[in-house]
Design goal:
This protein is an alpha+beta fold. It contains six helices and eight strands. A five-stranded antiparallel β-sheet has the order 1-2-3-4-8, with helices on one face. This is PH domain-containing protein. Pfam families: bPH_6.
Length: about 200
């Protein structure tokens, strides 16, 4: 089963930015005023290229065959049998052949999120003689226990580790790791650079 993980907050804010840029580009084109409009377009283009590279594009994709790490300008296809270890700090780090490490851009865990997860994992203080806590169903209780003390990055790291261990149990052969450039992000960057050059030259 294919699963895609990314920063939901960054993804939503990026699309809000894209909508803002689309409105402003339309306004600048309909009310074109020469160099000032070109400069404004160049600024919007440069910021949009940055937003696309760091907020819209990054994703961690778990497919049946491999882990796909989409970072700003590169995509890494890492077959499950090639995964040797997974560690989680502020990011998910996937270790594979020759002591190489794939650092996934998303999801990441901040110090604040980790502290919140640790508080969530701690037992609730009991006050007074009578307890008024709601009774959880078995499914809800299992979910609470599964996420106790864990961030989203920890959860994704566990998913990667489980799929890699499953591939090893099936004795799958380690296929070659492929790293490709992100031509879409490069194209967006080239357009932004072209707008900046045009704003300077014209």
């Amino acid at each position: 089963m294919k699963r895609t993980y990314r920063s939901k907050t960054a993804f939503v804010l990026a699309w809000v930015w894209v909508a803002f840029v689309a409105f402003n580009v339309y306004d600048l084109i309909t009310r074109y005023s020469g160099k000032p409009s070109l400069v404004a377009l160049a600024v919007l283009g440069a910021l949009t290229a940055l937003v696309y590279a760091v907020a819209l594009r990054p994703a961690t994709v778990l497919t049946e065959e491999a882990l796909v790490g989409r970072n700003p300008f590169r995509t890494t296809y890492l077959p499950w049998a090639s995964v040797e270890d997974v560690t989680v700090s502020h990011s998910v780090n996937v270790h594979y052949g020759d002591e190489r490490v794939l650092r996934l851009w998303t999801p990441m865990s901040s110090a604040r999120e980790r502290a919140k997860a640790q508080r969530r994992g701690a037992p609730a203080p009991q006050r007074g003689r009578f307890r008024t806590e709601p009774t959880l169903s078995k499914g809800e209780q299992a979910a609470v226990e599964a996420f106790a003390g864990k961030t989203h990055a920890d959860y994704v790291g566990e998913q990667i580790r489980e799929r890699a261990e499953s591939a090893r149990r099936r004795q799958e052969e380690a296929a070659p790791v492929r790293v490709t450039w992100s031509y879409d992000a490069i194209a967006v960057l080239v357009v932004a650079v072209a707008l900046v050059v045009a704003a300077i030259v014209v």
